[in-house]
Amino acid sequence: AQKVTQAQTEISVVEKEDVTLDCVYETRDTTYYLFWYKQPPSGELVFLIRRNSFDEQNEISGRYSWNFQKSTSSFNFTITASQVVDSAVYFCALRNYGQNFVFGPGTRLSVLP
Amino acid sequence: GAVVSQHPSRVICKSGTSVKIECRSLDFQATTMFWYRQFPKQSLMLMATSNEGSKATYEQGVEKDKFLINHASLTLSTLTVTSAHPEDSSFYICSARTSGGAQNIQYFGAGTRLSVL
Predict the structure, then answer these.
(1) Exposure of A75 by Cβ count < 10 A (0-12 exposed, 13-18 middle, 19+ buried)?
(2) Under 8 Å between Cβ of B14 and B68
(3) Which DSSP string corresponds to A46-112?
(4) Residue A81, Cβ neighbours under 10 Å: how many?
(5) A with B: how many residue pairs have Cβ under 8 Å apart?
């Protein structure tokens, strides 16, 4: 069975702080994809990253970085120097090859000025 | 720009009426489209998977007679909430998957916020 756990329900930080959102997944497949999406108050899902199971390289995109560790089945997301505009709900998701998305419960991030 | 268009973005209706939500893939053909429902402060839950030209596959607990899905073309899927009731009020999100290959990509619409009075 596939499962995605985001243990942090809500996080509040002050602007310019770094924050890490945790994601732990479960799957029996060897081929799978991991995703992070941002959902601002408008509701639209904003795609942030897709990582396949064979690529464990960490990735950095501006203030965003992702740490993929297969050994611990984790795909954590760090925002450096957070800004108010980063306030949103963030979803981690898993998709096995040819199958549907399984979304985590989401982490609500509030960045305070 | 958006590659999946969902319409309307917001709808308010009276209890007992039916509401149709459209999902269009704009720049690609989507043999498979998905419908999700998201209740406030909860995650997205898959309702059904629709394949062009065939009947939709519904997830357990989703009433197929209440949530009618039609995927008549490779670029359009519709979800009709029949005889809507206040408990159907939710955020509905569609998604379309590109065809073929291991790298097929799934795009999400902007969502439809349904409020049933």
Answers:
(1) buried
(2) no
(3) EEEEEEETT----EEETTEEEEEEGGGTEEEEEESS--GGG-EEEEEEEEETTS-EEE---EEEEEE
(4) 12
(5) 38
Contacts of residue A47 in chain B, CB cutoff 8 Å? 107-108
Cβ of A44 under 8 Å from any chain B Cβ?
A: yes
- In this structure, the number of other CB atoms found within 10 A of the CB of residue A52 comes to 15
Sorted by sequence, the CB contacts under 8 Å of residue A72 that are 6+ apart come out as: A24
Judging contacts by C-beta atoms under 8 Å, the chain B residues touching residue A97 are 102
The token duo for B74 is 């490779």
Cβ distance of B43 and A42 shorter than 8 Å:
no
- How many CB atoms sit inside 10 A of residue A112's CB? 11
Average pLDDT of chain B is 90
What is d(CA B113, CA A68) in angstroms, rounded to the nearest whole number?
34
Inform me whether the C-beta atom of residue A47 falls under 8 Å from chain B C-beta atoms: yes
Count CB neighbours of A14 within 10 A.
11
Calculate the average pLDDT of chain A: 93
Please name the member of A31, A43, A91 whose beta carbon is closest to the beta carbon of B43.
Answer: A91
pLDDT tens digits for range B76-109: 999 999 999 999 999 999 999 876 554 567 889 9
User: Is pLDDT at B35 greater than 50 in this prediction?
Assistant: yes
